[in-house]
Amino acid sequence: AGRLRFCKAVEEEEKMHSFGYRANALVTFAVTILALMCAMASLSDNLNSPSPTSQVQVLNINWFQKKLDGDDEVSMTLNVSANLESLFTWNTKQVFVFLAAEYETPKNSLNQVSLWDGIIPAKEHAKFWIHTTNKYRFIDQGSNLRGREFNLTLHWHIMPKTGKMFADKIVMSGYRLPEAYR
Length: 182
Hints:
Blueprint lengths: L1 H43 L8 E14 L5 E12 L8 E12 L7 E10 L6 E7 L4 E3 L8 E12 L5 E11 L6
Antiparallel strand pairs: 1-2, 2-5, 2-6, 3-4, 3-7, 7-8
């Protein structure tokens, strides 16, 4: 009778292990397939060669002044147009885009001031034209902006559903601030 009970216990334990082992194998297989699909999605983004376009016009310098603390400040009216549709693939969640004024000073080889930004949630919104003043203050610590040449650079960060984030930019040159405060 003792031997019979022992055999039944071993048999029941084998059934439990059998179920546990099967569940473990199924979960491991599912996670492996999911990881493989994520890796393929991420790698497929490397096949996309985007060709975004952008143009920015400075319509007006609204004011250009020296603040009480000695810093220069500029307010501009801008027309920003861009076609970023080629940045979107089936793996793109959204695109963060910002326009920056970039210039050199004797103290710094690169000064970068963000003027405007936005989040593009879908390809349908990736072709846009906006008429705006700079959303953020264009200030230089010191009086380095008079007569200064600067670039307007449209930067973007592509945020994928899976995989690594990509960033790039379009540099538009040929802009100059006035010689005198207004």
